[in-house]
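Following the same procedure, sequence and fold were stored together, as reproduced here:

>
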Amino acid sequence: MTEAVRSDIHIDVRDLTLAYGSFVVQQNLDFQIKHGEVFVIMGGSGCGKSTVLKSMIGLKSPARGDVYYEREAFWSASEERRKALMHKFGVMFQQGALWSSMTLAENVALPLTQYTKLSEEEIEDVCALKLALVGLAGFEAFYPNEISGGMRKRAALARAMALDPEVLYFDEPGAGLDPLSAKLQDDLVLELRDSLGSTVVIVTHELQSIFAIADNCVFLDPDTKTQLATGSPKELRDHSDIFAVRNFLSRGTLPAEGQSSPEPVA
């Protein structure tokens, strides 16, 4: 990769292998994510998507390889430097992971009170702004159990944005949402990417969302325990040389290799 191309890369995963003891989850991962891109980590259940995300955000150390942020190695850095890099991440975990004993505003305020020197009034203003950005203006005093699942996910997104991160990470953001709520969340992700200029990394197997918002993706395979392809989802669906990739992106509707498509019914 030339230096000119490398300068456009925000996140560079190089030779990444992840394991729990002797059990290998994924191995030999190599993919790049550009600045301002919506990038999807996809694959079937149990392929290790969330484990890869955990390594990218500092929760799971690799058995081999590293993750580079603007050419700076994350896992090879000192603990102090890793913490500094992690302050540039915003993470929305599965199910939102909001604190049930805190209001929405208090949840959003948590990273601000921990990592900034803003006054209480300034934090209150930031929380109101972030919640308004995700369509939750006026819900600052509500508790998570008082709102719907879709609203909880949006509140979690507001918390992920609290520190104006350079990278937003989402783990299965559409899980458990009805089709309309999932569509609204996809639209919100694109709006926030465009307004904040953040790079967005999403773990999902929801094909409708993948085709709606992803600029690029990597396909992880549970059998070979490595990536099979990277690229635009539509290009991979229509032109990949690998049947498993095309079949996944076609909702498993392709005839098995070596078999012809069924004749149409007259």
